[in-house]
Amino acid sequence: MSTPLRLKELSKKEDLLTGGHRMCAGCGAPIAIRQVLLAADVPLVAANATGCLEVSTTIYPYTAWKIPWIHSAFENAAATISGVEAMYKALKKKGKIDRKIKFIAFGGDGGTYDIGLQSLSGAMERGHDMVYICYDNGAYMNTGIQRSSATPFGANTTTCPAGRVIHGKPQKRKNLTRIMAAHDIPYVAQTTPAHWRDLMTKVRKALEVDGPAFINILAPCNRGWRTPTNNAIELCRIAADTCFWPLYEYENGKLTVNYKPKEKKPVTDFLKTQGRFKHLFSPDSKDLLKQAQENTDHEWDKLLREAACWAEETGTTEEGK
Amino acid sequence: MGKKLAITGNQALAEAMRQINPDVCAAYPITPSTEIMQRFASFVSDGVVDTELVTVESEHSAMSACIGASAAGGRVMTATSSQGLALMWEMLHIASGMRLPIAMTLVNRALSAPINIHGDHSDGMGSRDCGWIQLYSENAQEAYDNIFQAVRIAEHEDIRLPAMVCMDGFIISHSIESMEFLPDEVIRDFIGEFKPKYPLLDVDKPVTYGPLVLPDFYIEFKRAQHEAINKAKKVTLEVAREFEKISGRSYGLFEPYRLDDAEIAIVLLNSAAGTAKDVVDDFRNKGIRVGLLKPRLFRPFPYEEIAEALGDAKVICVFDRADSFGGFGPMYMEIASAMMAAGSSPLMVNKIYGLGGRDFMPEDAEAVIKEMTGILDTGKTGTLKEYIGVRE
């Protein structure tokens, strides 16, 4: 029996990522990871890509992890956990282990969208029984806020600084969640820690799958986003309400949009909360704001159209999932 | 005893892997080692072994998966060459730093650029500082024998480090030679059951592998690694003695060939040593006191033992099938260090040969030994580092 997804019951569960780790105050990542771990009711073994989460939770001789955990390098959390999972299968086949164990990998957007994409793609294609969790804070925050392919259009980072000629990141971000869906794996989803029940339900679905699953979780970084330390959850909510970060899932290839804001807010509601977009609000940057809105609309519309096709095909209403 | 067969080096190693039957193999194809994993994949498909084969998308992922699998708590193997090993380079350090006893067959091949698929030792030598135990092999028989011993050395309680067995690409990997296989049950008893240490899969005793270690502890980790790999010398000899009991073939840290009263010594690794032994015999027949030393254990390097074996030589020529551009060849530097530390000061020259699979012929060895006799007579070395067998 799995723990009901109610705060009362969940609060009684042991935290598998203990307090006292050294992630920044107000960071979204450990909130997301603790939700992931709380959702699981089976023993887990985790691999972690190099990044904030990894360096800040395992400063020797301390570790914040109460589950078996391995970090080997930056670009290979997926390959590393696929080796662990292969050994599990081998030992199970030989009768040396009989417990049910699930395998999980954590990586930031740098370790997932960029340097780790090949290793992730390979592991997904090979069909390992694993869940890959990306906590996406939209830049290489660990090394000091350098742009990644997850960095949103227009954001100011240390390698795409807002200058006189170039106004922050000139490119759109990569849509990794859809790239993962294109691998045609059993489960792919996108969520935020503000939508904790959605996040935990998705983690449960991912863990129930016999095969690879991928979840992309928005994780605000107050250092990089230039925000206060007390509003990570609120930022996630605005991200979903503006459709900057839609909540959706692919179950065996079928897309469902899990949250449709009653009133879709303008993306500026999200952008204006963060210092990294400050320069976009200068009088001569109107075109950039327009572009940011168009990018968001384009992705959101594409998602809705695809979801509508699925609903039509399976004879369900969009809401009747 | 085992059966004798005519077989290629790659076939011999694939057969060895079948007999080892590791729990997990993760590998990516690369010439000239491809055939090892290809044959092994057939063993997996036919259910001859019960290994989980992870057919990764790169060598970087191959070593990463090997690391995950080994830390999970079982026996792990892989095979590669050249660029594959170069791509693994980052992960080689991590495998040794985490003290994971992974066994690898390295079919030695030149490094790009220019791209070249043939045998030289640039790959193995380029990874000599990665913390892996390295055993070099003259022929298929030695490679076959070495891989079982490598598994034992790597997994030894006092060592727990990864080990690679090197043999020459094409010259050995693709040439047929007659060699002896040991029976499956003999190998099974020799390598024994894998004994996991701190396995990730023991979910009741969670461990953290690969934490961040700052200046307050990092050097202690490295010191422990240094001590562990140095113990591999003793363990290599113990394992070799046990292996001799099952095979009748004796192995040491290196192979001395007619070295006892030699005034001229030549040092050669792998297949070229076989070629040169014949030439040494020719010179011996003419009354010239020349001998050969073929290193086997390159990491850890047996400095004292090699210095002692070469102690009486007045002239030493070290052959390197790899270059450290702007420096002497890697083997020369080791031999020079060994002699210097032992207080010997023979005349020493360095010949770079056979890069990118250029043939090393008996005539090449002959010319060099002749040159050494001249150095012995005059006491003058001339150019210390020189390429041989080059089209001028």
Task: Give the total of domains of chain B.
Answer: 2
CATH architecture of the largest domain in chain B: 3-Layer(aba) Sandwich
> Structural class of the secondary elements of chain A?
alpha/beta
The overall pLDDT of chain A, averaged over residues, is: 96
List the total number of helices of chain B.
13
Using the coordinates shown, work out and report the CATH topology of chain A: Rossmann fold
Compute the number of helices of chain A. 12
Oligomer: heterodimer
Give average pLDDT of chain B, whole number: 97
Query: What is the overall shape of chain A?
Result: globular
From the 3D structure, determine the CATH topology of the largest domain in chain B.
Answer: Rossmann fold
* Run of helices and strands of chain A: HHEHEHEHHEHEHEHHEEHH
| Beta content of chain B | 15-25%
* Major sheet size, sense and barrel closure of chain B: 7 strands, mixed
N-to-C series of helices and strands of chain B? EHEHEHEHEHEHEEHEHHEEHEEHEHEHE
Helix content of chain B: 40-55%
Task: Compute the CA-based radius of gyration of chain A.
Answer: 19 Å
> What topology, given as strand order, has the largest sheet of chain A?
2-1-3-4-6-5-7-8
Distance N terminus to C terminus of chain B? 50 Å
Structure overview:
The complex is a heterodimer of chains A (321) and B (392). By secondary structure, chain A is an alpha/beta fold. Chain A has a single domain (13-314), classed as 3-Layer(aba) Sandwich (Rossmann fold). Chain A contains twelve helices and eight strands. Chain A has helices spanning 7-10, 28-39, 52-57, 77-93, 109-114, 117-126, 176-181, 196-208, 222-225, 232-241, 268-271, 286-314, and strands at 44-48, 69-70, 102-108, 130-136, 187-191, 213-218, 248-251, 254-257. In chain A, strands 2-1-3-4-6-5-7-8 form an eight-stranded mixed beta sheet, sandwiched between helices. In chain A, β7 (248-251) and β8 (254-257) form a beta hairpin. The radius of gyration of chain A is 19 Å and the shape is globular. The mean pLDDT of chain A is 96. Chain B contains 13 helices and 16 strands. Chain B is globular. In chain B, α1 packs parallel to α6, α10 (271-285) crosses α13 (362-378) and α11 (303-309) packs across α12 (330-341). Helices cover 42% and strands 19% of the residues of chain B. Chain B has helices spanning 9-20, 34-45, 59-72, 82-97, 122-126, 140-155, 184-191, 218-230, 232-247, 271-285, 303-309, 330-341, 362-378, and strands at residues 4-8, 24-27, 52-55, 76-80, 103-108, 133-136, 163-168, 176-180, 208-209, 254-257, 264-267, 290-295, 297-299, 315-320, 347-352, 385-387. In chain B, strands 3-2-4-5-7-6-13 form a seven-stranded mixed beta sheet, sandwiched between helices. Chain B is α/β, with parallel strands linked by helices. Chain B folds into two domains: 4-247, Thiamin diphosphate (ThDP)-binding fold, Pyr/PP domains (Rossmann fold, 3-Layer(aba) Sandwich), CATH 3.40.50; 255-387, Rossmann fold, CATH 3.40.50.920. Chains A and B meet through β1, β2, α4 and α6 of A and β3, α3, α4 and β9 of B.
